Amino acid sequence: MRNRPVLRVRKSGAVLVAALIAVVGAVPLAGTSWALAPIVLIPLAVLAWAWRAGTDVYPDELRVRALFGGSRVPWSRISELAPDQRGRVSALLDNGNVIRLTGVNRENLPLVLAAGGHPLGEPATSEQ
Questions:
Q1: What are the C-alpha distances in Å from 119 to residues 104, 109, 127?
Q2: Distance CA 41, CA 61 (A)
Q3: What percent of the chain has pLDDT over 90?
Q4: pLDDT band (50, 70, 90) for residue 125
Q5: Contact at 8 Å (CB) between 65 and 56?
Q6: Cys-Cys crosslink for 56: which of 5, 43, 93, 98, Cβ 3.0 to 4.6 Å?
Q7: Residue 93: beta bridge partners?
Q8: Can you tell me the distance from the alpha carbon of 117 to that of 128, in angstroms, rounded to the nearest whole number?
Q9: What b/e readout covers 50-72, taking b as 16+ CB neighbours within 10 angstroms?
Q10: DSSP letter at 128?
């Protein structure tokens, strides 16, 4: 059995609460007609996504989880972690692929790095 992650990063709990409220609001509407019954599936999918999606940090890898599936990325394959204009963080891999780290933003990036054993430090300088 796999060890527990050092750090779990998830979306805000407000998304989970909003999805739960949307499910409660969709049930009466879906109960009026069989044709409207599938409308409750939308907030249920958002609820499942908010519960499951995120990034788990282990000492040797990152595990990025989505609604369906996920991916494991060893720290050794990550060349760079960088935030975009909206503050969301993506990992640039050694093969050129980019993976968006669900739930990781500019503010909690130092925590993710520290939990993975890669504390934020001074940038590397090249000596000539």
A1: 16, 10, 22
A2: 33
A3: 52
A4: very low
A5: yes
A6: 5
A7: 78
A8: 29
A9: beebbbbbbeebbbbbeeeeeee
A10: -
* DSSP 3-state of 91: strand
Alpha-carbon distance of 78 to 15, in angstroms, equals 29
Residue appearing with tokens 């407000």: 14
Model pTM score: 0.75
50 pLDDT more than 50: yes
Strand ordering across the sheet containing 54-57:
7-10, 54-57, 61-65, 70-74
Asked if 55 and 104 count as a contact pair (C-beta separation under 8 A), the reply is: yes
pLDDT in tens, 73-90: 999 999 989 898 998 999
Residue found under tokens 């940038």: 123
